[in-house]
Design goal:
Oligomer: single chain
Radius of gyration: 18 Å
Number of helices: 6
Strand content: 5-15%
Length: 208
Amino acid sequence: MTDAATLDLDDEIKMFGRWDASEAEISDEGLVRYISLENILAPRSKGRHSEKQFYKADVPIAERLLNHLYVAGHRSNKHYITSGINVGKSEKLWNIIEDAFEIIEEETGENPFQILVDAIENSAPVEEVVTYQRGGVRARKAVLVSPQRRVDMALRLLSQGSYEKRLASSEDAVETLAQEIIGAANGDDDVRAVREKERREREAEGAR
Protein backbone atom coordinates (compact mmCIF):
# COMPACT_ATOMS: atom_id res chain seq x y z
CA MET A 1 0.00 0.00 0.00
CA THR A 2 1.42 3.38 -0.97
CA ASP A 3 1.69 6.35 1.35
CA ALA A 4 -1.04 8.10 -0.66
CA ALA A 5 -3.50 5.33 0.21
CA THR A 6 -2.90 5.37 3.95
CA LEU A 7 -4.74 7.40 6.55
CA ASP A 8 -3.24 8.07 9.96
CA LEU A 9 -5.59 7.45 12.85
CA ASP A 10 -4.78 10.92 14.16
CA ASP A 11 -5.89 12.58 10.91
CA GLU A 12 -9.15 14.47 11.18
CA ILE A 13 -11.76 13.59 8.59
CA LYS A 14 -13.36 16.62 6.96
CA MET A 15 -16.00 16.92 4.30
CA PHE A 16 -14.30 17.18 0.90
CA GLY A 17 -11.06 17.29 2.89
CA ARG A 18 -11.75 20.96 3.69
CA TRP A 19 -14.78 21.70 5.87
CA ASP A 20 -15.78 20.43 9.27
CA ALA A 21 -19.54 19.84 9.10
CA SER A 22 -19.74 19.30 12.85
CA GLU A 23 -18.91 22.99 13.41
CA ALA A 24 -22.32 24.02 12.06
CA GLU A 25 -24.92 24.94 14.65
CA ILE A 26 -28.62 24.04 14.37
CA SER A 27 -30.78 26.73 15.95
CA ASP A 28 -34.12 24.96 15.36
CA GLU A 29 -34.28 22.54 18.29
CA GLY A 30 -36.89 20.41 16.52
CA LEU A 31 -34.38 19.54 13.77
CA VAL A 32 -31.31 18.82 15.90
CA ARG A 33 -31.85 15.05 15.97
CA TYR A 34 -32.67 14.89 12.25
CA ILE A 35 -29.75 16.73 10.65
CA SER A 36 -26.59 14.63 10.79
CA LEU A 37 -23.42 16.73 10.64
CA GLU A 38 -21.09 13.75 10.52
CA ASN A 39 -17.94 14.11 8.42
CA ILE A 40 -17.57 11.35 5.82
CA LEU A 41 -15.01 10.32 3.23
CA ALA A 42 -17.49 9.13 0.61
CA PRO A 43 -21.14 10.12 0.07
CA ARG A 44 -22.53 6.60 -0.16
CA SER A 45 -23.73 4.87 3.01
CA LYS A 46 -25.09 2.05 0.77
CA GLY A 47 -28.23 1.50 2.82
CA ARG A 48 -26.51 0.47 6.04
CA HIS A 49 -29.04 2.50 8.04
CA SER A 50 -32.14 1.33 6.15
CA GLU A 51 -33.20 -1.42 8.57
CA LYS A 52 -33.50 1.08 11.40
CA GLN A 53 -36.57 3.24 11.95
CA PHE A 54 -36.01 6.90 11.09
CA TYR A 55 -32.70 5.81 9.55
CA LYS A 56 -32.39 8.97 7.46
CA ALA A 57 -31.59 10.94 10.60
CA ASP A 58 -28.23 9.10 10.67
CA VAL A 59 -27.39 9.79 7.02
CA PRO A 60 -25.01 12.78 6.69
CA ILE A 61 -26.82 15.86 5.42
CA ALA A 62 -24.54 16.25 2.40
CA GLU A 63 -25.38 12.71 1.26
CA ARG A 64 -29.10 13.42 1.66
CA LEU A 65 -28.69 16.51 -0.53
CA LEU A 66 -26.92 14.34 -3.11
CA ASN A 67 -29.79 11.82 -3.06
CA HIS A 68 -32.31 14.57 -3.81
CA LEU A 69 -30.21 15.89 -6.69
CA TYR A 70 -30.54 12.50 -8.41
CA VAL A 71 -34.25 13.20 -9.01
CA ALA A 72 -34.38 16.98 -8.87
CA GLY A 73 -37.16 17.07 -11.47
CA HIS A 74 -39.43 14.70 -9.55
CA ARG A 75 -42.63 16.11 -8.11
CA SER A 76 -45.41 14.16 -6.46
CA ASN A 77 -46.05 10.97 -8.49
CA LYS A 78 -44.34 12.00 -11.70
CA HIS A 79 -41.26 13.64 -13.15
CA TYR A 80 -42.41 17.21 -13.69
CA ILE A 81 -39.09 17.92 -15.40
CA THR A 82 -36.97 15.05 -16.62
CA SER A 83 -33.85 14.57 -14.49
CA GLY A 84 -33.03 10.98 -15.39
CA ILE A 85 -29.62 12.08 -16.65
CA ASN A 86 -28.63 12.71 -13.02
CA VAL A 87 -29.44 9.23 -11.73
CA GLY A 88 -26.32 7.27 -10.85
CA LYS A 89 -23.99 10.20 -11.50
CA SER A 90 -22.69 10.22 -7.92
CA GLU A 91 -19.21 11.54 -8.64
CA LYS A 92 -20.48 14.27 -10.97
CA LEU A 93 -23.11 15.48 -8.50
CA TRP A 94 -20.70 15.24 -5.57
CA ASN A 95 -18.28 17.48 -7.47
CA ILE A 96 -21.12 19.94 -8.17
CA ILE A 97 -21.89 20.10 -4.43
CA GLU A 98 -18.21 20.64 -3.60
CA ASP A 99 -17.83 23.43 -6.18
CA ALA A 100 -21.07 25.03 -4.98
CA PHE A 101 -19.78 24.97 -1.41
CA GLU A 102 -16.61 26.73 -2.57
CA ILE A 103 -18.73 29.54 -4.02
CA ILE A 104 -20.76 29.70 -0.81
CA GLU A 105 -17.60 30.03 1.26
CA GLU A 106 -16.21 32.74 -1.04
CA GLU A 107 -19.42 34.80 -1.01
CA THR A 108 -20.34 34.45 2.66
CA GLY A 109 -17.01 33.84 4.37
CA GLU A 110 -18.65 31.14 6.47
CA ASN A 111 -18.57 27.36 6.69
CA PRO A 112 -20.83 26.23 3.81
CA PHE A 113 -22.39 23.58 6.05
CA GLN A 114 -23.61 26.34 8.36
CA ILE A 115 -25.20 28.06 5.35
CA LEU A 116 -26.79 24.77 4.28
CA VAL A 117 -28.24 24.24 7.77
CA ASP A 118 -29.62 27.80 7.78
CA ALA A 119 -31.13 27.18 4.33
CA ILE A 120 -32.84 24.01 5.56
CA GLU A 121 -34.25 25.77 8.61
CA ASN A 122 -35.67 28.57 6.44
CA SER A 123 -37.15 26.10 3.92
CA ALA A 124 -38.70 23.56 6.29
CA PRO A 125 -42.43 24.26 6.88
CA VAL A 126 -43.69 23.85 10.42
CA GLU A 127 -47.33 23.37 9.40
CA GLU A 128 -49.18 22.20 6.31
CA VAL A 129 -52.70 21.28 5.25
CA VAL A 130 -54.07 17.76 4.87
CA THR A 131 -57.39 16.78 3.28
CA TYR A 132 -59.66 14.15 4.82
CA GLN A 133 -63.17 12.95 4.12
CA ARG A 134 -65.97 13.41 6.63
CA GLY A 135 -69.08 11.68 5.39
CA GLY A 136 -69.45 12.80 1.80
CA VAL A 137 -67.56 16.04 2.31
CA ARG A 138 -63.85 16.67 1.95
CA ALA A 139 -62.42 18.84 4.70
CA ARG A 140 -59.01 20.44 5.22
CA LYS A 141 -57.17 20.96 8.46
CA ALA A 142 -53.79 22.23 9.59
CA VAL A 143 -51.32 19.72 10.99
CA LEU A 144 -47.78 19.95 12.34
CA VAL A 145 -45.09 18.57 10.06
CA SER A 146 -42.80 15.92 11.54
CA PRO A 147 -39.13 16.94 11.81
CA GLN A 148 -38.02 14.18 9.44
CA ARG A 149 -40.45 15.35 6.78
CA ARG A 150 -39.44 18.98 7.33
CA VAL A 151 -35.81 18.20 6.47
CA ASP A 152 -36.79 16.07 3.48
CA MET A 153 -39.11 18.75 2.13
CA ALA A 154 -36.46 21.44 2.51
CA LEU A 155 -33.81 19.43 0.67
CA ARG A 156 -36.28 18.46 -2.05
CA LEU A 157 -37.40 22.05 -2.61
CA LEU A 158 -33.82 23.34 -2.69
CA SER A 159 -32.89 20.68 -5.26
CA GLN A 160 -35.95 21.36 -7.40
CA GLY A 161 -35.46 25.12 -7.29
CA SER A 162 -31.81 24.96 -8.33
CA TYR A 163 -32.57 22.48 -11.11
CA GLU A 164 -35.40 24.61 -12.53
CA LYS A 165 -33.18 27.72 -12.54
CA ARG A 166 -30.41 25.75 -14.21
CA LEU A 167 -32.72 24.81 -17.09
CA ALA A 168 -34.16 28.32 -17.38
CA SER A 169 -30.89 30.26 -17.39
CA SER A 170 -27.39 30.21 -18.81
CA GLU A 171 -25.84 29.61 -15.38
CA ASP A 172 -24.30 26.23 -14.68
CA ALA A 173 -25.49 23.75 -12.04
CA VAL A 174 -22.80 24.78 -9.57
CA GLU A 175 -23.79 28.45 -9.60
CA THR A 176 -27.53 27.84 -9.39
CA LEU A 177 -27.16 25.39 -6.47
CA ALA A 178 -24.88 27.80 -4.60
CA GLN A 179 -27.21 30.77 -5.10
CA GLU A 180 -30.28 28.71 -4.13
CA ILE A 181 -28.67 27.67 -0.83
CA ILE A 182 -27.38 31.19 -0.07
CA GLY A 183 -30.77 32.72 -0.92
CA ALA A 184 -32.62 30.23 1.28
CA ALA A 185 -30.20 30.85 4.15
CA ASN A 186 -31.00 34.57 3.87
CA GLY A 187 -34.76 33.92 3.73
CA ASP A 188 -35.04 35.34 0.20
CA ASP A 189 -38.60 35.08 -1.18
CA ASP A 190 -37.22 34.63 -4.70
CA VAL A 191 -36.02 31.17 -3.69
CA ARG A 192 -38.61 28.49 -4.46
CA ALA A 193 -38.00 26.61 -1.21
CA VAL A 194 -38.65 29.66 0.98
CA ARG A 195 -41.66 30.71 -1.09
CA GLU A 196 -43.19 27.24 -0.93
CA LYS A 197 -42.65 27.04 2.83
CA GLU A 198 -44.45 30.34 3.36
CA ARG A 199 -47.30 29.27 1.07
CA ARG A 200 -47.86 26.04 2.98
CA GLU A 201 -47.83 27.80 6.33
CA ARG A 202 -50.31 30.44 5.10
CA GLU A 203 -52.65 27.68 3.93
CA ALA A 204 -52.34 25.97 7.29
CA GLU A 205 -53.11 29.19 9.14
CA GLY A 206 -56.26 29.65 7.05
CA ALA A 207 -57.40 26.07 7.69
CA ARG A 208 -57.24 26.23 11.48
